[in-house]
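Why does this matter for the project? Reviewers at the last site visit asked to see concrete outputs rather than summary tables. In response, this paragraph embeds two records directly. Each consists of the residue sequence and, immediately after it, the corresponding structure tokens. Nothing has been edited or filtered.
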Amino acid sequence: MRLLLVVNSFASSVNARNTVIVHRLLSRNHDVEIVETNRRGHAIRFAQDAARRGLDGVVAFGGDGTLNEVATGLAGTETALAVLPGGSTNVFARTIGMENDPIAATNSLLAGLNDDHISPIGLGRVNGRYFCFHVGIGFDAAVVAAVERHASLKRWLGHPLFMWSSATTWARGYDRSQPQFTVQDLNSDAELSGLFTVVLNTGPYTYLGNRALDLAPTARLQRGLTAVTFTSLQLRVLGSAFLNALQSRPAGNIDGVIEWTTSNNIRVTPSHEEAQVPIQVDGDYLGDTPLIDIDYVPDAVRLVWPGNLSEPGL
């Protein structure tokens, strides 16, 4: 197969040594080009160019942000998407059954390619940008923004930086005193006000070390989108949701958290005139916006599943 290997050398788990090994392994039985990203949006353009040239697949070797850009560039084309874990968390790669070590994951990817374990999956889409596993609105996005303000530390501190940013944002970086936005399900006209919403294309929401944090256990690929909205950010609510997520129990069972399943057509607007809402997509902060439209796109991209799965696609 003709493959393009897109490498984010700034990602937490990517280094010169494992990049060389990954490239050599892939090149044993495939024609592999290699490119490196050096700015935001670069991987989108690399993926779009690969699809225009008719390459068989693009391998995203970086964090979830790199994967998101490659998926966005390939959506709606015949060029397949493949993923290798190179970030600090690697939510999507682990969700589909990849090992968290890049070399071991490369061997699983090669087995998937050899067995032709390639099938289409649906993606979420927010304001025209695709997402693989989730989009976060409100408090969650404010936390990601705080993490990115210390991007130089992210490679070395990872989860401790995220936890510190969560605490400082909760304490003084986000208005918790009143609802910040309204979520509307355009298919049912249901509405609710909230402080934090995550719309999931699959679960878990993230990982804490080796432990999955599963806010909505029924959220899985090919089932459409699931929205989980926090109407309160009291420590009691956040603590209960965290414990439930560790045990794969729905956060929606908690007072102060509401879950909507099959939320495939959602609009989010600020609660206050001329305000804007922060948004993050697959772990990357995209800024603040006055209007957020989210929908589900079936069969958006062809995914290469790891060869260690007995039932790819489930």
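We now turn to the second protein, recorded in exactly the same manner.
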Amino acid sequence: MHGSQTIFDGLDGVGKGVFAKAIIEEIKKTSLKFFDIHAYWSKYGRHPTINELSAYDVVYLSEPTFHVPSGSMIREELILKENRNKYSAEEIAQAYALDRSILYEKVILPARKKGIHILQSRSVVSSLTYQPLQARLNNEKKITFNYVKNLPGNKKALKNPPTLLVIPTINSIDDIIERLNKRSKKDNAIFENYEFQLKLKPYFESKKIRNLFEKKGTIVIYPDAGVSIDYSKEQAKNIWEEYIKNFLKI
């Protein structure tokens, strides 16, 4: 049995983590063996081998990777606010694609092949939205949607599409910025500002993104994350019941 892949993607601060954590809570109520890769990354600074993952049923991960060289380069250098304008949208797009390519080769593809299910925060969808917008704002005309889509790591991800893509949406960008300001975990990223997120919102909600993935057989849904945390958790439970439980055969 090929393992499923559920991805949560969207604007900064929209509540991807709320949805993912609610699903994880449901997984932990079952007999499934759950592995959070972030603690492993933090301890060892590398990806686990497939032999290390083979005892688990579900793996939770995120992009860009944490404490792994390719991901650390992005988080600790390329997208920091103090390094604004030092690196082009092209350089950042290529770095994300490389980090993604390694993650797919080392973890996602071998795990899914073994029947292990992937739960994931952020993905190639972020590259297909953030970098074309960043390039437009920087007047980097070469860096189009198609350019980003065809970077090797992104082609690899699109060739192996997720089973379910969840893009939480919100009406007010003011709410997004308020959430980011209240968040204890500060990414200090160049993209976490009102103007960028406002322009980014229609990219995530575009037919181009939806059609790209639905044509590959991915289920794409857009839950409303703007009501309350409790409402988001309720929707996450509905997603668990309607989709993910079936993927996990429970």
